[in-house]
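BUG-637 | component: ligand-complex export | severity: low

The export step for adenosine monophosphate jobs runs without errors, but we want the raw record kept on the ticket for reference. Input record follows.
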Amino acid sequence: MGLADTHRRSLEDSAAFWSKASKLIAWSRAPSQVVPESSGRWQWFADGRLNTCFNALDRHVIAGHGDRVALVWESAMTGAQERFTYAALQRAVEVCAAMLVNLGVGHGDRVVIYMPMIPEAVIGMLACARIGAVHSVVFGGFAAPELAARLDDAGPKVILTASCGFEPGRVINYKELVDEALAMADNDICAVVVKQRPQLPAKLQPGRDLDWNAEMEAHAGAKLACVDVASGDPLYILYTSGTTGRPKGVVRDNGGHAVALAWSMRHIFGIEAGDVWWAASDIGWVVGHSYIVYAPLLIGATTVLYEGKPVGTPDAGTFWRICARHRVTGLFTAPTALRAIRRADEDGAHVREQVLDALEALFVAGERLDDETATWARNVLGVPVVDNWWQTETGWPITAGSRETRASGGRPTPGFNVVVLDANGRDVPRGGEGSICLRLPLPPGVTTAIWNDPDRFASEYLTAYPGYYHTGDSGYIDDDGTVQVLGRTDDVINVAGHRLSTGVLEGLLATHHSVAECAVVGLDDPLKGQVPHAFIVLKNGADHQDPAVADELVRLVRARFGAVAALREVHVVAALPKTRSGKVLRRTIRDVAQGQTVDTPPTIEDPSVLAVLKTQLGVRPAKSAHNIGRRTKGAAP
Ligand code: COA
Ligand code: AMP
């Protein structure tokens, strides 16, 4: 049965569809109630009980697959490699779980994991799942204040971290960042457990910090059964960009998540037990949670964990070497990584150096897949390039192409009733652009709650279009049913596959003493898809020719938000175009900065501001590769 038929069936009889899918999971109490009740908080498989770690590890060991490789780790940054069989990973997770229990972590308690791409991060996540604790992984590219905000919101008992991680040309001192964040946060941490890496061992603070290896040794051989949890109990919190500076912790349940991921791994990605699968993402993002850790293990596949970049560590052949070495059958990455590889190896010489006969398909997500990149990848690899569109909130693809039919573009996946609505909530006819929405109810696996804020899910996602979940993406549906996602309608931008809120960056820039007003917009970038550009109006008295202001602002964002913001371009302008009600016309600024023809918006307060802006931004700033602080011509006040 094709995906289209499957999709239709999932909407026509969702109880039958998801009841069958739920059999992919071992339940300690099988759910008798499959579909959520229509009132209150939706909960799939509401009366079911299970343990996600049991499903990811123990179940396979019990079934006699303990010798199968569960996790392969490759670090291009240190040259290290490690393999864990299912039995070995289960043992390590049991020991880590015993360590957490000994530190007082129990069912429902939170554990923040701030670690680079090392096996201990995966072990920590699964150990939390084992004891019914809730993990919250924080991406390493965030600076200490962002980590502190997440610590405050999640309220963890324990932090799992490492002494350091690596970015090309520099060592990231994770432990120092944790110390800084804890000094800012209002949090009663019981313990910080540190995986010491020989390249930069950390100084441990007596009474609070513990050495990961010593703790694991102290609990060696511990046996710890999986804790039975309710389907609706939270498995993890993952913070994502919202429209405000407040952290938005997406809550994922256990039951719906396990079922949806197991189903998707098999039927969307075509991966079965024993296959080798590699999601070249980061555990700090949802792709990493779903498709590095949980989905491949839930179905008994081998998952690859990679610490490194697609290029420069050491070259653009890294992906293909790893695929060949481990006989990867399915690779998942972001278009930006492919663009980086293509830029360094246009004719695919590195691909030809490897035997990639095991590779069956390349899956991409995280940002819009451009035709050129798709065609290039298809040509050099000779496999289908399959796009899939989703969000942190959904946890798994809303739409996906098909590797069987080699269709790249996405059709809705089971349970997602995708529609395009206009500003008045009316259906837009096929081919017409509008807001992409999902008719309620949402399928299993999709969040229905924001941590610490019971009303926020409904207010952010369900109120704009009653009866629908508002994705925040715009797009259209082709005549053949393919959903084309064009971009965000809110202030979220997508930089190198990373989701950033321009509002948050603006909030930080506004704290600078010379900044009177600012706007951050995402401009098209040939490598990263979009990059943020800041447009600032200086306060009276500030030196408008002083290049230090731009550098200070770039440094401020790096220090307060993190390098991942990739804000390198600051433009001093005389004024920002606004509507008569005072709203900054960001889209107008973006179009002017990109050299597009811009008509004067009818709502503009002062058309002369736009004319001045056009003159000022007549020249696009040159791109700085890795350097900070660049600005265009300083604008006269
Ligand atoms: N820890 C600390 N710093 C990090 C980091 C991490 N985990 N990840 C990124 N950064 C830093 C980078 O070192 C860089 O710092 P710099 O300004 O000092 O150079 C900055 O954040 C911006 O990083 P990035 O936007 O990733 O740019 P890049 O030039 O380092 O790399 C690519 C470009 C395309 C190679 C890289 O962005 C990439 O691999 N993208 C794919 C992303 C992805 O898989 N996303 C998941 C969605 S599926
Ligand atoms: P995140 O929550 O970080 O996964 O980011 C989700 C956002 O990334 C979506 O709302 C989209 O804007 C964008 N996105 C993810 N996948 C795709 C895709 N395949 N095509 C277009 N945009 C995508």
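Assignee comment: Attached the raw record above. DSSP finds 19 helices and 30 strands in the chain.
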